[in-house]
Amino acid sequence: MSFSEAERTELGRELERLHAESYGWALACCAHDAENAADALQAAYVKVLTGAARFGGRSSLRTWLFGVIRLTALEEHRRNARQRPLDARSQNAIVASNNLPDGDAEIAERRERLMNAIATLAPRQREVLHLVFYHDISIAEAAVIMGISVGSARQHYSRGKENLSEMLRYERQEDVRAR
Amino acid sequence: MKGRRMSVHDDDLKTRFRELRAHIEATAPRFDAISKVPSSSMTTLAPRRMLLRQAAIVTLVAMGAGSLYWTRGYIGGNQADLRYTEAAIVKWTSPTDFLLQTPGRELTATVPALFESVVQPRVFGRTHTERTEVVR
């Protein structure tokens, strides 16, 4: 079902308002590979703007949009897994991280440490922690985005937080020993 | 965070994620660059369904017209041909028809009258039909 011009304009405005957050979520869904994240986000926007994915109003627009982005990223990942070898994807992630401009070396280091620690987590733990801490979303809303029960989301959240804290504490101790 | 007690760990994680977010949002590609929907997607996604629907309708109409044309001879064709066809079907006999001349075949080939028995016993030497005629 196609949109009217006014509907499409309004939808476009909402997508633009949420764009920065959407990109952050797309990055999280694509293991911080900037190229894959941009592809996944564009594919999600196409779905939304052409009516292939329709907002039903059962949740907030952001929650619904994040669900679309997550599923689209999964589809793109499966498609890319057949076309590109794993090494190339890892290189994309590393290159994207290093090429980003940065003013404060200490903050950059903390950020790098956080991304390395997040990368060691199980996918569901990674997702729920990103949604809760990065996007300031409740666990209940995160459960809707991830398509799991609230109880499961809480479990992934508590285990993920424990693992992440442990990783960060371990890295801090390593730093202290190195100095 | 909504409705949760913040621990030291939570504060630390929140700060780290906030730093990460500030960095990512500062370097995010522009919305215009990513939201450009290829014209092929806009023109084919919805009309694709329309094309399939139209193709289905055309196919059904073609099938209906084809079946009408095929049965034209039986519906509105040449009456003479129709009569000839009917007569041919009625008059046609199989070369092996004699094999079907079984005893009592006439019982299955005719429809009996209401008060006429298919079995005609001879009562007092006369059939039911003969007795009826005598009574009259």
Strand proportion of chain A: under 5%
The residue fraction in helices of chain A comes out at over 70%
Element string of chain B (H = helix, E = strand): HHHHHHH
Shape of chain A: globular
Give the number of helices of chain A.
9
Largest sheet of chain A: none
Mean pLDDT of chain A, as a whole number?
85
What's the helix count of chain B?
Answer: 7
Distance, first to last CA of chain A: 62 Å
Shape of chain B: elongated
Oligomer: heterodimer
For the biggest sheet of chain B, the summary is: none
- As residue ranges, the low-confidence spans of chain A are 86-98
What does this structure look like?
The complex is a heterodimer of chains A (179) and B (136). By secondary structure, chain A is mostly helical. Helices cover 79% and strands 0% of the residues of chain A. In chain B, 63% of the residues lie in helices and 0% in strands. Chain B is built from seven helices and no strands. Chain B has helices spanning 8-26, 31-35, 39-70, 72-75, 79-91, 105-109, 128-135. The longest helix of chain B is centred in the middle third of the chain and has 32 residues, at 39-70. The model of chain B is unreliable at 42-47 (pLDDT under 50). The chains are: A mainly alpha (179), B mainly alpha (136). Chain A binds chain B through residues 1-2, 12, 15-16, 19-21, 23-24, 27, 38, 41-42, 45-46, 49-52, 100-102, 107, 110-111, 114-115, 129-130, 132-134, 136, 138, 161, 164-165, 168, and chain B through 1-3, 9-10, 12-14, 16-17, 19-21, 23-25, 27-29, 31, 34-38, 41-42, 45-46.
